[in-house]
Amino acid sequence: MKKLILLLFLITFLVSGVWGDRVKIRKLPDYVVTGSLTPDATGNYYYTGIVNGKPYYRRGIDSWFIWRSEVNNTWWITTTLASISGYRWTRVNTEIVGSYVAEGGATGTATVTAYGD
């Protein structure tokens, strides 16, 4: 029994004390935006919160968002959350996954896929 307790203590110490500051758990992205886009909005998008009663997603730590407006079930890829000014892509559909049309001076067709698909 003493050996088991000692073993558990050592495992706990090694994981939290020695490796604890080096172990980083990374969240997998929820969606991926691809395409030949200008400006470049491609990359991994992660669930960030709720806007307009719907989930929204953010690309890493910068300011590209995928979000859904309450008007016509429209999904947007924009640089400002819940704002359709500036460069943007849009998709009129209840599903986030699919092709988005460029607007506001943006170019290219953005494609959103679920991560791992």
Short description:
The protein has 117 residues and is mainly beta. 15% of the residues lie in helices and 38% in strands.
Structure description:
By secondary structure, the protein is mainly beta. The chain has one helix and eight strands. The chain has one helix at residues 2-18, and strands at residues 31-34, 43-51, 54-59, 65-68, 74-78, 88-92, 98-103, 110-114. The protein has an eight-stranded antiparallel β-barrel with strand order 1-2-3-4-5-6-7-8. The radius of gyration is 21 Å and the shape is globular. The termini are far apart. The relative contact order is 0.18.
Task: Give keywords.
globular, 15% helix, mainly beta, 117 residues, 8-stranded antiparallel beta barrel, single chain
What is this structure's SSE topology?
Blueprint: H1 2-18, E1 31-34, E2 43-51, E3 54-59, E4 65-68, E5 74-78, E6 88-92, E7 98-103, E8 110-114
Antiparallel strand pairs: 1-2, 1-8, 2-3, 3-4, 4-5, 5-6, 6-7, 7-8
Tell me the major beta sheet: 8 strands, antiparallel, barrel
Give me the strand/helix succession.
Answer: HEEEEEEEE
Q: From the helix content, strand content and strand pairing, which structural class follows?
A: mainly beta
Shape: globular
Mean pLDDT: 86
Q: What order do the strands of the largest sheet run in, or round the barrel if closed?
A: 1-2-3-4-5-6-7-8
Q: What proportion of the residues is helical, as a percent range?
A: 10-25%
Count of helix runs: 1
Distance between the termini: 48 Å
Low-confidence stretches are 13-19
Radius of gyration: 21 Å
Count of folded domains? 1
Assess the beta-strand content as a share of residues: 35-45%
Report the strand count.
8
